[in-house]
Design goal:
The relative contact order is 0.13. The strands form three sheets. Strands 1-9-8-7-6-2-3 form a seven-stranded mixed sheet, with helices on both faces. It contains ten helices and 13 strands. It binds pyridoxal-5'-phosphate. The site of pyridoxal-5'-phosphate has 12 residues, from helix 2.
Length: 365
């Protein structure tokens, strides 16, 4: 069997060259008059940093991200957040009106949104709620993929909103079983907060795996919109041909490079470690509160919490100006809220408000 993941692309796109932008044509020029840019800088733009169209994939950023994530630069494509990578994968691999993606609910909403927008079906293989937290039923998932015309399997690890980390050996085994049939996408938006290795380490042996990483969470650059897909170099080249011509705004690239320099990166790592210890402190405190049914173990920067009365908890927090995510509409989570970790002071405020609500409920009962 040919296991080249490029064969998983939509057949009608395999020879697609994409748009040839002025910036993608490499020339040894001195005077650049090929892209209809202005000949003067905007008055809002001092030195003219943004006068010209940007490099589609600036080498400095690509190399820096590759070093950070442990892959080769040509195995990586940067874009407008991992949201763009999800969309790109769905469009490049799935035929509208025929193919499907598989997801494991409760999970991140964008996989199904991108599929819907592209006219692609979404097949569900639900996570199982176990005493150790939500876990993925890999055997059921693989059966589902083999039954339907599934081209993409979206795994989220650590899961949003489950908080669970998926075991790498099982991800590798799933990819092996689906070789030549489907691409296994591992969304690692929160992996910086986890104790465990990235699925990037599996790419050497399993070519039908793609890993999503982002600067939006641990790196605190959500508004810069920089996310990355890491996969087989041939597949990455094909995905780039399907991407918009100028996905990376120059100011955002500059910001990312500054944030990923050695000293700022060390600060990011220290803050991530603090968030991880805050997470355990907050989880312990919440577990001690009456009215809290369950606090799930979390490898991310949020806690998934079940309440006797989630509405009162949500409203009580909102009354003091604290907004948490109501996830009750998600499958299996009819009594749950997702609470992002804040500063230690903000986390203390959450505990304070929720214990006040619990005391009040206790008096009323
Ligand atoms: C936040 C989040 C993302 C979005 O990342 P961007 O890089 O900001 O687009 C992707 N996946 C999951 C699971 C997330 O929770």
């Amino acid at each position: 069997m040919n296991d080249d993941p490029v064969l998983l692309l939509r057949e009608d796109l395999r020879d697609f060259a994409g748009y040839s932008s002025a910036r993608s044509e490499k020339r040894d020029g001195r005077v650049w008059l090929n892209a209809n840019e202005a000949a003067w800088p905007s008055v809002a733009d001092g030195e003219g940093a943004v006068r010209r169209y940007p490099d589609p994939q600036p080498a400095a950023l690509r190399e820096r991200l590759a070093r950070l994530y442990g892959c080769e630069p040509q195995q990586l494509l940067a874009g407008r957040g991992s949201d763009e990578a999800i969309d790109l994968l769905v469009r490049a691999l799935c035929r509208p009106g025929g193919d499907a993606i598989a997801i494991t609910p409760p999970t991140f909403g964008m996989y199904a949104v991108c599929a819907r927008l592209h006219g692609v079906r979404t097949i569900e293989a639900p996570l199982r709620d176990t005493p150790d937290g939500f876990s993925c039923d890999f055997a059921a998932l693989a059966d589902t993929v083999e039954r339907e015309a599934v081209k993409l399997v979206f795994l989220c690890s650590p899961g949003n909103p489950s908080g669970s980390l998926l075991p790498l050996p099982q991800i590798a085994a799933l990819a092996r079983r689906l070789r030549g049939r489907a691409l296994v996408v591992v969304d690692e938006a929160y992996i910086e907060f986890a104790e465990g290795a990235s699925a990037v380490s599996l790419l050497g042996s399993e070519r039908n795996i793609a890993v999503l990483r982002t600067l939006s969470k641990a790196h605190a650059l959500a508004a810069a919109r920089i996310g990355t897909v890491i996969a087989d170099a041939g597949l990455i080249a094909a995905l780039q041909r399907c991407q918009a011509p100028y996905p990376l705004p120059t100011p955002c690239v500059g910001l990312a490079l500054r944030a990923l320099a050695e000293v700022p990166l060390n600060t990011t790592k220290a803050r991530t470690a603090t968030a991880m210890s805050e997470r355990e402190r907050l989880a312990e405190a919440l577990r001690g509160l009456p009215g809290v049914r369950r606090v799930y173990p979390s490898q991310a920067n949020f806690l998934l919490v079940r309440f006797d009365d989630a509405q009162s908890a949500f409203d009580g927090l909102l009354d003091t100006g604290v907004v948490v995510r109501d996830v009750r509409a998600a499958p299996q989570l009819g009594d749950a809220l997702r609470i992002s970790l804040g500063t230690p002071e903000q986390n203390a405020a959450v505990i304070e408000v929720l214990s006040r609500i619990a005391r009040r409920a206790g008096v009323a009962a």
